């Protein structure tokens, strides 16, 4: 991913955490749906630019939002591992200001979870069957100082670029990801 912290249009957010989370969501959305878990280190863009001077391009550091963050995707995530096991093995170095992850989930109405088959594959098929199920993508980003941002995109809003933002969308994921920064 490239630089994530240029000054946005006047009507958009200028919070560095919100900006990097939105940038991650757009980056992940560009690859379509049905993706595995993706994880990102969040690093101060100014520090990254000191290490890679050509990163910012012609505007240089003057165009940066104060506190701008860049996302660095982690490439070697174990495939097929469950989320809890993956996060339990992650510990970020001090240079990393925060972390983010993008994952997809299936949301079904509460009654769809009743009387599920015991076989895991059959249960997944049963959960995918309800016509009112929703495919969603979550982006959860946290910083060492405790701030967090959660974004949610429904597959049905893929083309109109509508993304919901809220602090309580995925509190369990926020806590689990924050634990990787301790």
Describe it for me?
The chain is of the alpha+beta class and 182 residues long. It has helices spanning 16-29, 45-51, 83-88, 120-128, 171-179, and strands at 38-44, 69-74, 98-107, 134-143, 148-154, 164-166. It is globular. Helices cover 25% and strands 24% of the residues. It has a 6-stranded antiparallel beta sheet with strand order 2-1-3-4-5-6. The longest helix is centred in the first third of the chain and has 14 residues, at 16-29.
Specify the overall morphology. Answer: globular
Assign the structural class, choosing from mainly alpha, mainly beta, alpha/beta, alpha+beta, or little secondary structure.
alpha+beta
Helix content: 10-25%
What can be said about the biggest beta sheet? 6 strands, antiparallel
Kindly report the average pLDDT value.
82
Oligomer: single chain
How are helices and strands ordered from N to C? HEHEHEHEEEH
> Using DSSP, what is the number of strands?
6
Number of continuous helical runs: 5
Low-confidence stretches: 2-11
Radius of gyration: 18 Å
Strand order of the largest sheet: 2-1-3-4-5-6
């Amino acid at each position: 991913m490239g630089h994530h912290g240029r000054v946005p249009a006047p009507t958009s957010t200028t919070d560095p955490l919100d900006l990097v989370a939105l940038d991650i969501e757009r980056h992940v959305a560009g690859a379509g749906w049905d993706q595995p878990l993706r994880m990102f280190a969040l690093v101060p863009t100014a520090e990254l630019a000191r290490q890679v001077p050509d990163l910012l391009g012609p505007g240089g550091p003057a165009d940066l939002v104060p506190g701008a963050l860049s996302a660095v995707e982690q490439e070697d995530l174990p495939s097929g591992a469950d989320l809890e096991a993956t996060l339990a093995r992650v510990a970020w170095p001090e240079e990393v200001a925060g972390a983010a992850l993008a994952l997809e989930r299936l949301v079904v109405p509460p009654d769809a979870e009743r009387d599920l088959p015991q076989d895991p594959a059959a249960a997944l098929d049963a959960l995918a069957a309800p016509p009112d199920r929703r495919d969603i993508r979550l982006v959860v980003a946290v910083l060492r100082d405790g701030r967090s941002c959660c974004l949610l995109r429904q597959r049905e809003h893929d083309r109109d670029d509508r993304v919901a933002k809220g602090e309580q969308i995925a509190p369990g994921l926020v806590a689990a990801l924050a634990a990787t920064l301790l």
